[in-house]
Design a protein that fits this description.
By secondary structure, the chain is an alpha+beta fold. It is built from 25 helices and twelve strands.
């Protein structure tokens, strides 16, 4: 995983530049006001600070659709160029108007970085450390603020501090960012798969994961293109085909479902059960908690039920089906002629018609699974489609068959205890004929008491065999992207699982925005972004020196012999330094405690800090005591904010939308964030002059109370879950919410 960590760190240089800019303008505006005599014009002062936010808002309106069309990496390259240009112009800035123009261009760079870096990290990171890596932008941004405040503080001690150098020096680190985006950052593998560029996606995944066998994750990414259809939750008892029987009577043939797995001589069969799965019962009836509190979104308890049953090792090393391996070939380790992506050569005697939807390199035309003739002795096969005589057989080069039995790792484990599989089921129709078809299933093992697990036993000759085992699992069941009636019509010689070229997007699929699950996710994303901004964080960040100056912080540093401007900047630098270990703690907890619990724990601390700040501002007390209380409250507010409300809204928004419209939806949420940011940043100096420090922070405290209620009722826990599973859950949750 070293590769994906280094890529995430490189990408977050864009956030370091944003933090650098935030802190620099917070200090430089003190001297800009003096040179251009803006002390009596808070409107112009607010506009100088807010102009970058206006630029970010403007660029965000189109960044999502363009990133879905052009790619994530090119947009990050453009962001680095915009940072560079704005730094040079700010270094020159002969008047206010040129400064405003430079700040606008700077905002373009910030908007692209802040919107797309969390998206990029989410699409490249494995699910079990996605939260940690997506907290890196917060850490990087705060680190940039600290470095910038140190620079500004040093310059503030000069006889004539030069604000142009303070702002313009941004162009130097932007050069590093440019070279990293050009020469080091790969394109998002999910975006590449959505375009049918399978070989490039596979190569990127191999680099990021540090291993050759990425077939399971490749299959997951392709299946992610099909999210948005009818999704249901089912429960199964799963075991070997010959041994799956009830305690008292055998299972009827019609009640068995064949699961698609690769082991020779072994066929896994699932028996549907009802009433035993926590997931299923919540989906059908709602939980006790949701009935007790009717306003709570059923999706919250639906997601929560999964995390109550996460296995101890919630990673790609799945505990579900230790012998249930990849249905896809990893034959590139043995035979280059049997690769499943577009590198694969057509098998002898097969002729696949072109679908006409691929790129010039034929990315979309090769089969994801091999089609073989019937009667392949010793190999499991999927029953043929009723209208065809051929069958669909798995290739045998599973990662499970490349090591000892005790080291077997299912390459279809997709993180968080989830397993990707497909099923073939047959039912007798009204006309008496058997009907069958494929379904995609995301399986999640449930630790139900009484479930039986087998063990490895030694056989004569030193072979190892697995005894019968029965596993209870919940399953998210929906239509697969790898198999459809349309594809069947295109390939009449047999069921062919090929890349769904109709899903190879030339741009976002706008109709997906109206899917119930997507609309539900947008409500959560927009709501959390609005509340984050109106909790006041960015306004306080931009105006920290003024706020501390108004709180009387110079009293605390009077003995140092430095002015009030330098004192407030120094305290700001110390504050950002203290934020860094707090963010490090949040990085550790993000994938352990989870996003929801961190929010519900940290928001009450925010409220307490704001209330103390308000009370200390209203009550008459010793100036030193008041300054100490106010400064401490501001520091606690910052440090607590960056542990929860700072990184989590962007993390959530990068996780909850399907691949087809992820860029568009994140842009919508980011647009909401920037509009709120502009309102808060522009109004804060005016509010400080009119209602004072106590009034401003009193409003922020009320917003934090509303935020806690919103999180408790509406925000689900997404830690450790694959992105594709999260979007499936939103589809199920939206359906459940519509019933209530």
């Amino acid at each position: 995983m070293r590769g994906v960590v280094l890529v995430a760190i490189a990408a977050t240089i864009g956030n370091l530049l944003q933090g650098w800019d935030n802190a620099t303008i917070a200090g430089a505006v003190l001297y800009v006001k003096k040179e251009f005599k803006l002390e009596s014009e808070p409107f112009v002062e607010g506009l100088i600070v807010a102009m970058s936010l206006i630029g970010a808002t403007v660029i965000t309106t189109c960044s999502g659709p363009i990133s879905d069309w052009l790619g994530r990496r090119p947009m990050l390259i453009i962001s680095s160029v915009l940072y560079f240009i704005s730094g040079l112009i700010m270094l020159w800035s002969p008047n206010v108007y040129v400064l405003l123009f430079a700040r606008l261009i700077d905002g373009f760079g910030i908007g692209l970085a802040v919107t797309l870096i969390p998206l990029y990290i989410s699409e490249t990171a494995p699910s079990d450390i996605r939260g940690l890596l997506n907290t890196l932008p917060q850490f990087s941004g705060s680190g940039g603020m600290f470095l910038s405040y140190c620079m500004v503080f040093g310059m503030s001690l000069m006889e004539n501090p030069n604000w142009r150098v303070m702002l313009g020096v941004l162009f130097i680190p932007s050069i590093l960012y440019f070279f990293l985006t050009i020469f080091y950052l790969p394109e998002s593998p999910r975006w590449l798969v959505s375009k049918g560029r399978m070989l490039e996606a596979k190569q990127v995944l191999q680099r990021l994961r540090g291993r050759e066998d990425v077939s399971g994750e490749m299959a997951l990414l392709v299946e992610g293109l099909g999210v948005g259809g009818e999704t249901s939750i089912e429960e199964y008892i799963i075991g070997p085909a010959n041994d799956l029987t009830d305690d008292h009577e055998p299972v009827a043939e019609k009640d068995k479902i064949t699961l698609y797995g690769p082991e020779e001589g072994l066929s896994w069969v699932a028996r549907p059960v009802t009433g035993q799965s926590t997931l299923g019962s919540i989906s059908r009836h709602g939980s006790m908690e949701s009935r007790t509190m009717s306003f709570m979104d059923p999706m919250v308890t639906l997601f929560g039920s999964v995390h109550e049953k996460l296995p101890e090792m919630g990673s790609m090393r799945s505990t579900l089906f230790p012998n249930f391996g990849s249905m896809f070939s990893t034959a590139d380790q043995h035979n280059k002629n049997e690769q499943w992506d577009e590198e694969g050569l057509l098998r002898e005697g097969e002729d696949y018609p072109s679908d006409g939807g691929g790129d010039s390199d034929g990315n979309l035309q090769s089969p994801l699974l091999s089609r073989q003739t019937t009667g392949m002795e010793g190999k499991d096969t999927i029953p043929p489609h009723p209208s065809h005589g051929s069958t669909l057989s798995m290739r045998r080069h599973s990662s499970l068959m490349q090591g000892n039995a005790g080291e077997a790792v299912s390459s279809m484990g997709i993180g968080g205890g989830w397993q990707l599989a497909w099923k073939w089921s047959e039912r007798e129709g009204e006309d008496g004929k058997k009907e069958g078809g494929f379904k995609r299933i995301y399986l999640h093992q449930e630790g139900v008491p009484g479930s039986r697990r087998g063990s490895l036993v030694s056989l004569p000759g030193g072979d190892v065999s697995e005894e019968s085992e029965f596993i209870q699992a919940a399953a998210l069941v929906s239509q697969p992207a790898l198999y459809s009636k349309e594809l069947l019509e295109q390939h009449p010689i047999g069921p062919a699982m090929v890349h769904p070229s109709e899903n190879a997007m030339k741009g976002p699929r706008w109709m997906d925005l109206f899917e119930p699950g997507v609309k539900h996710a947008l409500m959560v994303g927009i709501g959390i972004q609005i509340l984050e901004q109106f909790a006041g964080i960015n306004g306080v960040l931009y105006y920290t020196p003024q706020i501390l100056e108004q709180a009387g912080v110079e009293v605390l540093l009077a003995n140092l012999g430095i002015g009030s401007d330098s004192a407030s900047i120094l305290i700001s630098a110390v504050t950002t330094l203290l934020m860094l270990p707090c963010i490090a703690v949040a990085m550790r907890l993000m994938d352990v405690s989870g996003r929801r619990r961190l929010l519900l724990t940290t928001i009450p601390v925010l409220i307490l800090a704001l209330v103390i700040l308000v009370v200390s501002s209203v009550l008459t007390m010793n100036s030193v005591v008041q300054a100490a209380i106010s400064t401490t409250s501001v520091v606690v507010y910052f440090c607590t904010f960056v542990m929860g409300f700072g990184p989590i809204p962007n993390i959530l928004c990068s996780e909850i939308f399907p691949t087809s419209v992820r860029g568009v939806c994140i842009a919508i949420c980011a647009l909401t964030m920037w509009i709120g940011d502009i309102i808060v940043t522009y109004t804060l100096p005016v509010m400080l002059n009119s209602i004072g420090l106590a009034g401003v922070f009193g409003i922020y405290a009320v917003v934090c109370v509303i935020s806690w209620v919103f999180v408790f009722l509406k925000v689900p826990e997404t830690k450790g879950m694959p992105l594709e599973v999260i979007t499936e859950f939103f589809a199920v949750g939206a359906k459940q919410s519509s019933r209530n």
